[in-house]
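Dear colleagues,

I hope this message finds you well. In preparation for our joint manuscript, I am sending the General secretion pathway protein GspC (Pseudomonas muyukensis) sequence together with its predicted structure, so that both groups work from identical material. I would be grateful if you could confirm receipt.
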Amino acid sequence: MPIAHLKLSPGLLMQGLGVLVTAAGLVTWAALLLPSAPSVASAEPVMAAMLTQTPAARWFADIPLHLQISVSGVMAGSQGAVAIVSLDGGPARAVRSGEELARGVRLVAIERSGLVVEQAGQRSRVEVPVLAQASFWGEAPGPSAN
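The corresponding structure tokens are as follows:
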């Protein structure tokens, strides 16, 4: 039986080399872009921690949002009451009752001594800090005996 000799043309060699380079590129990018699958038990706490890291991530997440709300004060305006609030230590901003503070968090009412906020279907009260009243001489009054 005679042995057959393969004759490879330069064009056929270039095509084969191109296929190999393309396959190597696809495997490399797939390894870089596709994350390895962690176990299901450890993935949930990791994802919850990652989702609560940034406001943008929390906005698009499907987890209930619990904000740290601090109130600087409340005031009456010509168009109703306004509260000055800061969310998660961010910059203060003015809000009115009925406004959505963040996804899933709504300001229900503004009262003289606090705010009523609804987060994840539960209402809670956020107190407005009261400044100590100073007397004429600049000293804070002592406790009353009433």
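For the figure legend, we might mention the following. The chain has a mean pLDDT of 76. The longest strand covers residues 69-77.

With kind regards,
E.M.
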